Amino acid sequence: MGKSPQGKVFLIPTTLGEIGPLEVLPLSIKRTVEAVNYYIVENEKTARAFIKKIAPKKSQPSLNIQLLNKYTDDTELPSFLNPCLEGKDVGIISEAGCPGVADPGAEIVNIAHQKNIKVVPLVGPSSILMALMASGMNGQSFAFNGYLPIDKGEKKSEIKKLERRSKELNQAQIFIETPYRNDKLLKDFVATLNSNTKLCVACDITLPSEEIKTQSVGNWKNTNIDLHKRPCIFIFQA
């Protein structure tokens, strides 16, 4: 008998907040979720809720779920892909948006490539890309920097360094922050950046409460916006 084909790893995007999945996700996501029974997720409760919303007829007891978060032992990760070696597909689901981008799913994808397992990225919302699209900043040269340091002095130094890089390279600089620190980060940008530097704040992307605004740092000094506990992307360009 010939060797059975390997399963694939599907990167399954989710919504960016409380909105119906089919408002922002294509039917291909629904079909994939209906077909796949093995999943690697950050949070089992929210992953099951997402699966139930997009594929309500799918049997929850049939799901085999592995957790991938900061508590996961790295030595366990290769075994998460054992179903693929047995010909079964595996889905990776992020807490929000696209797996593998600012997301621990990237570690599993790397292992999949090492094992020559096919990786299939599916279409869905990426808050990072959508914020850049709507910012009016350079979409041909940009850098995603993730989180800035928490220490006040280190944060200020990093912001100034990246502002210089932005000016030298004509490059948009993209950041995320823990939602309860959003207001503080906006204040730090306004206090540290040159008044002529453009700053975009994009929050609640794809949701009814979505707000996306780009203006100079000087104008942000006179703008009131409540970002507390709202998922946000920050972008600046000098």
What do these coordinates show?
InterPro entries: 4pyrrol_Mease, 4pyrrol_Methylase_sf, 4pyrrole_Mease_sub1, 4pyrrole_Mease_sub2, rRNA_ssu_MeTfrase_I. Residues 82-216 form the Tetrapyrrole methylase domain. This is Putative methyltransferase. Keywords: Cytoplasm, Methyltransferase, rRNA processing, S-adenosyl-L-methionine, Transferase. The protein is α/β, with parallel strands linked by helices and 238 residues long. The chain has 2 domains: 9-121, Cobalt-precorrin-4 Transmethylase, domain 1; 127-237, Methyltransferase, Cobalt-precorrin-4 Transmethylase, Domain 2 (2-Layer Sandwich). The protein is 34% helix and 19% strand. It contains 9 helices and 10 strands. It has helices at 21-24, 27-35, 44-54, 82-85, 105-114, 127-135, 152-169, 182-192, 217-220; strands at residues 9-12, 38-41, 64-67, 90-93, 119-121, 142-144, 172-176, 198-203, 211-216, 232-237. Strands 3-2-4-1-5 form a 5-stranded parallel β-sheet, sandwiched between helices. Strands 6-7-10-8-9 form a 5-stranded mixed β-sheet, with helices on both faces. The model has no long low-confidence stretch (mean pLDDT 95).
List the helices and strands and how they pair.
Blueprint: E1 9-12, H1 21-24, H2 27-35, E2 38-41, H3 44-54, E3 64-67, H4 82-85, E4 90-93, H5 105-114, E5 119-121, H6 127-135, E6 142-144, H7 152-169, E7 172-176, H8 182-192, E8 198-203, E9 211-216, H9 217-220, E10 232-237
Parallel strand pairs: 1-4, 1-5, 2-3, 2-4, 6-7
Antiparallel strand pairs: 7-10, 8-9, 8-10
